[in-house]
Amino acid sequence: MSMESAKAFMERMHTDEDFRNKVNECKNQEARKAFVKQAGFNFTKDDLDLAKVELNEGDLSSVVGGLDNGWQRCNWVCNIDII
User: Fold this and answer.
1) What percent of the chain has pLDDT over 70?
2) Which alpha helices (DSSP H) does the chain contain, by range?
3) Residue 37 Rama label (left phi>0; alpha psi -120 to 50; beta)
4) Which of 4, 32, 46, 74 counts the highest number of beta carbons within 10 A?
5) What would the mean pLDDT of 33-48 be, rounded to a whole number?
6) Are 72 and 63 in contact (CB under 8 A)?
7) What percent of the chain has pLDDT over 90?
8) Around Cβ 21, how many Cβ atoms within 10 Å?
9) ∠ CA 29-52-76 to the nearest 5 degrees?
């Protein structure tokens, strides 16, 4: 279940700019963790790392794309201390 939550979180970070901005605006790890949980996501850092590994080739090409790319932003935020 938590792996599914991590995947859903990554998808939302990719598709929902308002949500992504709110996550990025959190002042610290505790605030991010609380916000993400309040939004209904429940996963560990390991779950998030595994979900990133499972991205398909097309998604991975988006990650290395331009800075305005949603997956690029998700990749950045997924590497900060969310959990």
Assistant:
1) 64
2) 2-15, 17-25, 29-38, 45-53, 57-63, 70-79
3) alpha
4) 74
5) 93
6) yes
7) 39
8) 10
9) 45
